[in-house]
Design the sequence.
């Protein structure tokens, strides 16, 4: 269910682009440090958005350093130094990756061989990140159980299932925060979760119909126009939450989040509702 929260790279200013890439590379290194090298394979642009939001709400003072890595061995790149937000996001990425694998297995009715092979490694890296069932791990498990219950019952309501996934991301975005920061993060996570779920359901509708996998849009079809309106309403709620964030002294982070909200996410929604594949339309390169 990942891959829908991306920036529109051509409209990023130079400093915003450099910071976005530094966060991406810093998150990769943080994942290797805290949840194991294999966990880096789970890195996606979605987690950069989570990291940017957490860095603002945690009021992180961040800095970058030049660094080479296996992916870019020749030329040094700016990499964000590890901080509380990156550490949390690295662990959250491991947690959500395990959740995605479990969801794939559930959807495929026991036929997801690849996901079953990845499950042990995903569980190991998740335990490194959030051992036990306390904190976000317990909240994610609870939301997943509710979601699987709705799917098993053949729930025809896209709203109910999207709300369930929204609650899952709400807990991930807000865990460990307090006061207004917690409330803002919870709303950002909830609306982002709904956005991801609706786009994923629309994106996979034909494939799920052929495979017999659960998809609420195959039980109670909704046309692309109505789905587009629903997604725009969720984006308006996300905008309202983002507007409550204090970006004082963090203009580059504001630019990144604004770009994702006003350019990247709407363009990804347009791609899905126009029936284009993920390979047909992407928003530029970070290299």
Sequence:
């Amino acid at each position: 269910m990942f891959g829908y929260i991306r920036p529109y790279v051509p409209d990023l200013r130079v400093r915003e682009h450099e910071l976005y890439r530094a966060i991406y590379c810093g998150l990769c290194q943080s994942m290797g440090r805290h949840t194991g090298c294999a966990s880096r394979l789970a890195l996606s642009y979605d987690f950069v958005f989570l990291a940017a939001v957490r860095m603002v709400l945690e009021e992180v003072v961040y800095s970058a350093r030049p660094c080479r890595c296996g992916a870019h061995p020749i030329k040094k790149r700016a990499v964000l130094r590890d901080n509380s937000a990156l550490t949390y996001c690295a662990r959250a990425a491991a947690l959500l990756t395990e959740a995605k694998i479990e969801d794939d297995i559930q959807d495929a009715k026991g036929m997801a061989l690849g996901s079953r092979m990845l499950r042990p490694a995903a569980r190991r890296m998740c335990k490194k990140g959030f051992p036990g069932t306390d904190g976000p791990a317990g909240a994610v498990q609870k939301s997943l159980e509710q979601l699987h219950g709705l799917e098993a019952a053949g729930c025809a309501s896209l709203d109910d299932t999207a709300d369930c996934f929204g609650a899952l991301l709400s807990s991930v975005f807000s865990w460990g925060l307090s006061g207004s920061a917690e409330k803002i993060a919870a709303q950002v996570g909830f609306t982002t979760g709904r956005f991801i779920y609706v786009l994923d359901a629309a994106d996979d509708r034909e494939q799920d119909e052929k495979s017999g996998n659960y998809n609420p849009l195959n039980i109670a079809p909704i046309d692309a126009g109505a789905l587009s309106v629903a997604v725009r309403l969720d984006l308006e709620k996300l905008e309202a939450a983002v507007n409550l964030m204090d970006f004082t002294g963090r203009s580059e982070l504001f630019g990144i989040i604004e770009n994702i909200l006003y350019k990247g996410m709407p363009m990804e929604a347009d791609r899905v509702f126009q029936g284009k594949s993920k390979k047909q339309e992407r928003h530029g390169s970070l290299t």
